[in-house]
Amino acid sequence: MDARHVMKFARAIFRAVIAAYPASYRKHFKESLLQTFDDMREDAAASDWFIIRDAIASIPMQYVNYFHETMKIKFKNLPAAIAGAALLLPFALLVAIAAPAQLLYKLGYANPVNVGIGQIIGTHVGLGTVILIFFPIAAFLINFVALIWAGFRDRELTVKQFVAGNVFSIVIMILGFGFALFLPFHDAIPCFVQGIWQNGFNNFLPLMNACRNA
Q1: What is the pLDDT of residues 57-70, one digit of tens each?
Q2: Statement: the pTM of the whole predicted model exceeds 0.90
């Protein structure tokens, strides 16, 4: 691929990234962002992918600003939510790699491979324990404490205002709790999906009992 095609490809990706920004932001800044992209590329001030990466990284903050300005929502506990998300990311990556392979094997569409969650934990017990147990619990506790503190600090807010302002911490807390429960039940999930796939919902309760001990 020559330089001209690379430039067109990079600019198309940049336009797609801009499309992910809030509509009000795109309306005012889309053309100036594209012009800045072209100018920086011509001046070799930064690589195409550096500019694109920077634009992607700015998307969450633009939505925070959007909600703050249009809905008058001031988000709170963002440091706790960001810390919790960082703690949950290794877990999410591990499951994204291991769970599909395990599920496909259960359904008979793949050969047994050594990428199941149990195998990974068995190979790296300490690291697996930290990622699958301690990190989710820590993410839950960090945001739980932050929410308790916010509840005492912002007692004048209504429930709707409190939830809207702390939505990120609430989501991370729920995910942390769910992730912490995943490990004891991760073998039951492929078993349950396999049973539904093969037999439908005809034997739902027996299937639940069978998969509980999977």
Answers
A1: 888 778 777 766 66
A2: no
